[in-house]
Specification:
binds 3,4-dihydroxybenzoic acid, alpha/beta, binds magnesium ion, 7-stranded mixed sheet, binds S-adenosyl-L-homocysteine, 7 helices
Length: about 200
């Protein structure tokens, strides 16, 4: 799986559209797509849409009968993402929900949403523990949970960090490791976005 013209255009236009350049790298996008394919995922949930770069990778991987539900707080990001979903021809298999992800995920739980097959957590890092708990409520045995940015150029090993981003990430890693409902590990990635990593978990 390689990044094609469409995805490259989306990635390169993101900072130009005034959005932060914090989407996953091409190789991480390919890894997300591969994890969707390996797990046979048809229903994906994403926390943090930005311009929809990772969303498009996963929307392609879930195929025609699939659905990616993606949660985004920022209206401007959502507007750019909607345009990108149209351009990519995946708008019919993406459901974009605007609002605080803690609230919109809670709404999905209240509405009795069917469990998701794969969940990608990539929004505000201090909320990662909250998102993990919501993800567990929206899962079934076998659901794959992926958490982005768990290495941060090594910054995550600093147990004394007062940075709320690092603390949220450290906390979610501890929860992933200790929770009897999960089997988890983490992998480092190196590429065009530098040194970072994904936590990977399977719901028991
Ligand atoms: N998954 C994207 C990148 C997401 S960047 C990709 O790889 O292409 C993180 C996104 O989370 C940003 O768009 C930001 O606006 C959004 N975000 C931040 N706080 C949020 C919140 N409380 N609820 C939902 N989204 C939030
Ligand atoms: C940031 C957030 C991300 O999700 C990411 O992949 C890289 C950077 C950030 O907020 O700096
Ligand atoms: Mg990220």
């Amino acid at each position: 799986m390689a990044e094609d013209e469409l995805l490259r255009g989306v990635r390169e236009a993101t900072p130009g559209a005034g959005l932060p350049d914090i989407g996953v790298s091409p190789t991480q996008g390919a890894l997300l797509a591969l994890l969707c394919r390996i797990s046979g995922a048809r229903r994906v949930l994403e926390f943090g849409t930005l311009a929809g770069y990772s969303t498009i990778w996963m929307a392609r991987a879930v195929g025609e009968p699939g659905l990616v539900t993606t949660l985004e707080l920022n209206e401007d990001h959502a507007a750019v993402a909607r345009r990108n979903f149209d351009a990519a021809g995946v708008a019919d298999r993406v459901r974009l929900i605007v609002g605080r992800a803690a609230d919109t995920a809670e709404q999905l739980i209240t509405d009795g949403e069917e469990p998701f097959d794969l969940i990608f957590i990539d929004a505000d890092k201090p909320s990662n523990p909250v998102y993990l708990e919501a993800a567990l409520e929206l899962s079934r045995p076998g659901t794959v949970i992926v958490v982005d940015n768990v290495v941060r150029r090594g910054a995550v090993i600093d147990s004394t960090s007062s940075d709320l981003t690092i603390r949220g990430t450290r906390e979610v890693l501890a929860l992933l490791g200790a929770d009897p409902r999960l089997t988890a590990t983490a992998i480092q990635t190196v590429g065009s976005k530098g040194w970072d990593g994904f936590a990977l978990a399977r719901v028991n």
